[in-house]
Amino acid sequence: MSSGNDSILDMYLYETNTLLEQLDGILLASEQADTFSQDSVNEIFRIMHTIKGSSAMMEFSSMMTVAHRVEDLFFIIREKTIEVVPESLRPELFDMVFQAVDFFRAEIEKVENGEALTDSIDTIVDKINSLIDKIQNGGDQEEAPAAAEAPASAPAAGGEVAAVDQDYPFGIHVFFDEGSGMENLRAFMLITGVKDYCADFVSFPEGVEADPSTAEVIADQGFMVWFRTKEDRESAMPAVKNAGSIQSYQQVDAAAKEAPKPAPEAPKAESAAPAVEKAPAPAAPAAADKQPKAASQHPKESLISVNLAKLDQLMAVVSEIVISESMVTASPDLKGLELDNFTKSARELRKLTDELQDVSMSLRMVPVSATFQKMNRIVRDMSKKLNRPARLTLIGEDTEVDKTIVDSIGDPIMHIVRNSMDHGLEEHQEERIAAGKDPVGEIVLSARHTGSEVIIEIRDDGRGADTQAILNKAIRQGLANPDQEYSQKEILGFMMMPGFSTNTEVTEFSGRGVGLDVVKKNVADVGGTVSLSSELGHGMTTTLKIPLTMAIMAGMEVAVGDSLFTIPINNIQQSIRATADQVILDPVRGEMFKIMDNFYPIIRAKEIFGLEKGHDNIEDGILIWLEAGEHSYCLFVDELLGEQQIVVKPLPSYINEFNVKSVGITGCSILGDGSISIILDIANLFTGAAGF
Fold it and tell me: Which whole number is the average pLDDT over 87-111?
């Protein structure tokens, strides 16, 4: 496939996925309200029309056909309002549209994976058609008898076309695509489009929106629209040209009218043509109708879609600029020189590079709302399948995170939400009522910024975690020592170990041994941490702490002997000059240091990394109090070199093979003088330290 076609396909996938996300949100809100607002109906109709057209352009016929049928359904609802759907049919309507969304998503996934699209769409199309029939049969059928008389005024055989009313001699003869189906609805949609351009016209057959039997007449003989003047017909041609599923159309003129009739006979002529369907609106309101459309046009589009690879390339270039700027301003050749003009220019350059860095990073920042909104659908579907009423509350949807990170945390959040639904919330409402809780379970998904990281919490008000049961299972699996005492955090930590599951049986959603360990790994891959907290009988909270971006960060440079390390600024709480008498030796946890009535373990960087050079005396170096997730400790280094913006560079693959991340090394950075600094992973440095 050529690059041009690749670009078109990428745009199609982006647009369709965006539309499906919008559609999911509309459906969930509408189902909760148990009705569709007129705006929602219009929006769904527009979305289906767009998917139909773009799928037809891409020659994805299965998606085009299903979108076309859903569009037909919502055209009826749009024209007659939601009241045309009896309340008894609304649950079926919601379920059917959700099924259509699932169908589109499955097809899009096949396109993304290069797989062939399905040809078997009869089941879903039949469901849509059946629902349309039920809605039409439940609606007003008064116009059907008049429509039944329509064949008497059919176009004449032999190519001669007779006007249904001599006052409307200028016609357009339309044939819809062969096999398109529901020709009566397509004719109704055409009439609606014509009304935007001309209000005074008649059509044959009439009653198309109310009588499905007219579809056969239209499929066999075509559909006719007649106008008083040629000018009216010309003004309405755009409606015909822009209508969908039209195979061909032709302008026709009826036989010349007889001499003008006296005024008294006008009503007689009208009564002699019972099949005439006149547009209900007079010409003046139609003109007024068109005016606001022209007046309320959108301003010129100010948003564009950019390939993420291009943003990655931009970030790489900005990163190199940051490095180059540091190399120039921190050049050893400048030491000892007093260059006022250079210093002034260097400050201006730093200001501009900081602004460039901020702008380039902001381009990658997207709100977590799209990821959060997807969880609504999961809660809705599981609530129905498990017969477990629940609601999802979203907080902080506008919180922005790097696009790459947002894509990476979608699956972990989905797994945690499923976990909360499947065996977090109580199985029966009676159990919740007996515990004094709301019969409807609640899952709260929240996001908030704290400095350079975002905190995402998934909290449920379910039964909570039975720590004794978790500990017993961990002991059976050999993960825990039966003779050792564990804190609640340590016990809950067993749930994030590979193969651990609290479910006693395999269900559609859990119990297969693929649990929170996958969540922990995926979050760790983007530099984040996962922690659990729970209170028996009151639910569980899963907290994800994730960096806002991984490309450029603020770091504190420290030295240990000849080695340089970078500590992320957001992990640093305080730096302290300690004396030997302030250090306490704990027989289990080793050296401890007291800060604000709490004791924290001391980790010596020299010992952890096996360095030959570096201070051993606590008074010669400096302690840095660090926090990462639930871990808090003091790191002993020789000296602080200063804060600066650093570019995170991944370690070479051959180094990663030694699993250096597990001992607290997450990447490296190039400093201004060209030397390399190792970036520390504060959480893994703690867990990887011997004795902790």
Answer: 89
Express each pLDDT in 643-688 by its tens digit. Answer: 887 777 777 777 767 777 777 888 888 776 778 889 888 877 887 7
Q: Cα 67–73–76 angle (5° rounding)?
A: 140
* Letter string b/e over residues 298-308, b meaning 16 or more CB atoms within 10 A of that residue's CB: eeeeeeeeeee
Q: Which residues, other chains included, contact 469 with Cβ-Cβ below 8 Å and sequence gap of 6+? A: 502
Distance separating alpha carbons of residues 279 and 165, to the nearest angstrom: 14
- Looking up tokens 């809780």 gives 437
Q: Residue 303: CB partners within 8 Å, gap ≥ 6?
A: none
Structure tokens at 565: 């390390």
Q: Which residues contact 605 (CB under 8 A, 6 or more apart)?
A: 558, 560, 565, 611, 614, 635, 636, 637
The phi-psi region of residue 34 (left if phi > 0; otherwise alpha if psi is between -120 and 50; otherwise beta) is left
SS3 state of residue 439:
coil
Within a 10 A sphere around the Cβ of 556, how many other Cβ atoms? Answer: 21
Average pLDDT over residues 560-588: 89
6 vs 3: CA distance, rounded Å = 5
pLDDT at position 452 is: 62
Burial of 430 (0-12, 13-18, 19+ CB in 10 A): exposed
What residue ranges in 2-100 does DSSP mark as E strands? none
Residues in the chain: 692
Question: Which bin fits 103, alpha (ψ -120 to 50), beta or left (φ > 0)?
Answer: alpha
Among candidate residues 216, 207, 208, 210, the one with its CA nearest the CA of residue 146: 207
Cβ-based neighbours of 366, under 8 Å, separated by 6 or more: 400, 401, 402, 403, 406
For the CA atoms of 350, 352, 358, 362, the dihedral, rounded to the nearest 10 degrees, stands at -160
Three-state DSSP class for residue 499: coil
What are the tens digits of pLDDT across the range 239-294? 888 777 787 788 888 754 433 333 333 333 333 333 333 333 333 333 333 333 33
- Would you state the torsion angle of the CA atoms of residues 374, 520, 444, 28, taken in this order, to the nearest 10 degrees? 10
Q: What is the CA radius of gyration of the chain?
A: 35
Q: CA-CA distance, 319 to 360, in Å (whole number)?
A: 10
pTM recorded for the entire structure: 0.61
- For 121, what's the count of Cα atoms within 13 Å in the CB-facing half-sphere? 24
- Measured between alpha carbons, how far is residue 73 from residues 66, 207, 377, 403, 634 in Å? 11, 17, 22, 36, 65
Domains of the chain and CATH, by start: 3-137 (1.20.120.160), 144-291 (3.30.70.1110), 308-360 (no CATH), 366-547 (3.30.565.10), 552-688 (2.40.50.180)
* DSSP tag of 153: G
- 515 Cβ contact list (under 8 Å, min separation 6): 415, 419, 495, 496, 499, 500, 501
Give the closest residue to 400 by CA, choosing from 450, 459, 449, 457: 449
Would you state the structure tokens that stand for residue 148, as one six-digit string? Answer: 């039944």
Q: CA–CA separation, 445 vs 456, rounded Å? A: 7
Using an 8 Å Cβ cutoff, are 533 and 464 in contact?
A: no
Burial of 15 (0-12, 13-18, 19+ CB in 10 A): middle
Helix (H, G, I), strand (E, B) or coil at 563: strand
**400 CB-near residues (< 8 Å, 6+ apart):** 365, 366, 367, 368, 548
